Amino acid sequence: MRTSWQSRLSSSLFALPYTICFALFMLFPIGYGVYISMHDFELLSDEHKFVGLSNYIEIFKVGSYLNTEFFHGLWHTIQFVLYSVPLLLLVGLGLALLVNRLPARLRGLFRTVYFMPFAISASVMAVIWLMMFDTNAGFINSLLQKIEIAPVPWLTDLPWAWLSLVSTTIWWTVGFNMVIFINALNEVPEDYYEAASIDGANAWQKFKGITLPSIRPVMLFVLITSTIASFNIFAQPFLLTRGGPGDSTKVLLMNVLDEAFKGKAIGSASAMAITMAIFIMLISLVQYRLANAGKEQQDA
After folding, report:
1. Ramachandran category for residue 200: left, alpha or beta (phi over 0 → left; psi -120 to 50 → alpha)
2. Looking at the 3D structure of the chain, how many domains does it have?
3. Residue 25 has pLDDT above 50, yes or no
4. Are 274 and 60 in contact (CB under 8 A)?
5. At a CB cut-off of 8 Å and minimum separation 6, what does 37 contact?
6. How many Å apart are CA 196 and CA 204, to the nearest integer?
7. Whole domain around residue 203: which residue ranges?
8. Residues 153-167: pLDDT tens digits?
9. Cβ(81)–Cβ(73) under 8 Å?
10. Whole-model pTM?
11. Where are the transmembrane segments (predicted)?
12. Is 49 helix (H, G, I), strand (E, B) or coil?
């Protein structure tokens, strides 16, 4: 019989490959990013002077260049989060409910169809939707012209630019949420629905009283992951609107990129990125706390 230390050693060896990869591709980049953010780290200079928290102080110094770039970009990012996250949650759940009601032989087909966009790259996504949203020769405006409706400046004017970015994001990523919700719905015991039917409950009552409480943990997971993903938006505005019109859709990660490679100031760009990461963690924590508080009140 193995001793306890041998058993622990064996278990640790199974986790070792993941631990190494986690350290190399997560912990080390984060640690190095924090190190860079505390230095005057410029691309064209060999000297990287230690500046401590100066880059972070500049971000919160009212009127400074970094303060303007960070909070303007953050506001545009928050706008996108507010527009997209509720729809990613509701559309994902709605599609899951619809697909789950299909005959068994069709469910796999529709799950694949809805999930396929999630598997394509950002550049392919951008090409597809540039062809759809182009003002002069786009597919959508061509259809509108056929019914004598003036072309819509989807990517060059507000609020159409935000509408285009949000709809593109839903098409591209909602399939992932749908699959998560389908798996959660399949875990709800059928006995609950049968008992509710015997009691005379209708479809809405079953959904409100059985489905929603049963999938609450999964909904919280989808909410938090969708929020994190939406805060990290970059590809859609960078490839579709280029931050326009003006800079009204220029999100925070685009400003971080400009600071790093156009301004050649890697140190301050890293400070912006680290501050953004801390902000996302705080938002996720607040969401988690609020969701748990709501659950405790409901249980009470």
Report:
1. left
2. 1
3. yes
4. no
5. 55, 56, 267, 268, 270, 271, 273, 274
6. 11
7. 73-259+269-299
8. 999 999 999 999 999
9. no
10. 0.89
11. 12-35, 80-100, 112-132, 160-182, 218-239, 265-286
12. strand
